[in-house]
Structures are given as structure tokens and as C-alpha cells.
């Protein structure tokens, strides 16, 4: 006759096997691992939390701003120079799909210009130059009046806008894409007639606002 052996909990305890202790050890080990990972991520975020790039409009030259009548079509030519700085000491920046254009009173007065992608190392500063043109761009009937009024004041306020995508680089790690927008105001001095040959130069440089 065969014998059936049933091990009781008391017998297991005598053999040194404790189920509750094994689960506790596993739980503590898993909790310690998760806590270490979270602490490491938090530490990296605190140390390397990237500051957004800084843009400064150094100069804007207005060469042409002619309005045809009666069709309200605009031709323009503007040369802009900006400096771009990466303020981070441990984070590099890749710039992708960057485009620029100029607007006046909420109306675009140049076509989009695509700038070549570039990389900006830790603390580096780059100079960006953009030649922006507009050919037969439709504007509102009040455009000529707005320009004439600003001409009488001797100043024309233009807005240079940049947008695109950037990626952060830490060591060999590169982040995903983040959208950024840059907004620069250029105050350009004008002569008596808008149709005279330029250039009309911006009266001063301007710090640009940047959002990421």
C-alpha cells in the first residue's frame, strides 16, 4: 500500500521555509529598484532641465515695400540678422524644419523662408541671416493707409517670426521633437516716400520672445 504524505504548515516552518518572508523580500527588492529609477530620472531632470534657446534680432533692413493699385498686391524685400544662443551648459540643441517670415499689422508681407537645419552645442551662439521676399502678396485695402500713417511718424514696426522643431541632446541621447516659436519686433526708420530705394535699417536691436 502506498503512503500519502501531506506536509503541514508547521512542518514547513520547521524546515525553514517562510512564504511571507519570501514575498516581503521580493516586494522590498522591487520597490527599491523602482525608487532608484525614479530618483535617477528626477536627478537628471533637475541637473539637466534644459532652458529654452535665446534669440536676439541684431538688424533688419527693409529694401522694398511697394504696393500696386488697384489690386492691393505687395512686393517686399527684407534682410534680417539674428543671433541664437544655447544657454545650457550640458545640453545641445538640434534645430529642424526652421522657417521665417515677416508680418506687418498682422498681415504677412514676405513668403516663408526655410532655413537649413543646424546643431548648437553647449553654450554656443550662432548667427542666422535671412533674405525674405514677397511677390504679389495680397493685402487688405487698408494696408496702404496703415503704412502711410506710420510713414508720417517716421517708423514702421515689423514682426519677424521663426518656427520649427528642436531636439535636445545629452551625451549620446537625443530627445524627440519639440515645437518652438520665436517672435521678434523690428522698428524700422522710414523716409518720406515708401517707394524710394532702401535700405531702411532697424533703429535698434531687440530681444526676441521664444516659446518651446
Automatic annotation (TrEMBL):
This is Late embryogenesis abundant protein LEA-2 subgroup domain-containing protein. Pfam families: LEA_2. It is found in: Membrane. The chain crosses the membrane at residues 26-48. It comes from the Eukaryota. GO terms for cellular component: plasma membrane; plasmodesma. One of its GO terms (biological process) is defense response to other organism. It is a single-pass membrane protein. The lineage of its organism: Eukaryota, Viridiplantae, Streptophyta, Embryophyta, Tracheophyta. InterPro entries: LEA_2, NDR1-like. It comes from Acorus calamus (Sweet flag). Keywords: Membrane, Transmembrane, Transmembrane helix.
Amino acid at each position: 500500500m502506498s503512503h500519502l504524505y501531506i506536509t503541514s504548515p508547521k512542518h514547513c516552518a520547521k524546515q525553514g521555509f517562510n512564504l511571507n518572508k519570501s514575498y516581503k523580500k521580493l516586494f522590498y527588492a522591487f520597490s527599491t529598484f523602482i525608487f532608484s529609477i525614479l530618483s535617477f530620472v528626477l536627478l537628471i531632470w533637475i541637473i539637466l532641465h534644459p532652458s529654452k534657446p535665446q534669440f536676439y534680432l541684431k538688424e533688419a533692413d527693409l529694401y522694398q515695400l511697394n504696393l500696386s493699385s488697384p489690386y492691393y498686391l505687395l512686393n517686399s524685400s527684407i534682410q534680417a540678422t539674428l543671433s541664437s544662443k544655447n544657454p545650457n551648459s550640458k545640453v545641445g540643441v538640434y534645430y529642424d524644419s526652421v522657417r521665417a517670415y515677416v508680418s506687418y499689422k498682422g498681415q504677412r508681407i514676405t513668403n516663408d523662408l526655410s532655413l537649413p537645419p543646424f546643431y548648437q552645442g553647449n553654450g554656443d551662439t550662432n548667427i542666422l541671416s535671412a533674405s525674405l521676399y514677397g511677390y504679389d502678396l495680397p493685402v487688405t485695402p487698408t494696408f496702404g493707409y496703415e503704412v502711410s500713417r506710420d510713414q508720417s511718424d517716421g517708423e514702421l514696426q515689423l514682426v519677424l517670426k521663426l518656427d520649427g522643431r528642436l531636439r535636445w541632446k545629452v551625451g549620446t541621447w537625443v530627445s524627440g521633437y519639440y515645437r518652438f516659436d520665436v517672435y521678434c519686433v523690428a522698428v524700422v526708420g522710414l523716409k518720406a516716400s515708401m517707394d524710394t530705394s532702401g535700405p531702411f535699417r532697424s533703429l535698434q536691436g531687440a530681444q526676441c520672445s521664444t516659446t518651446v
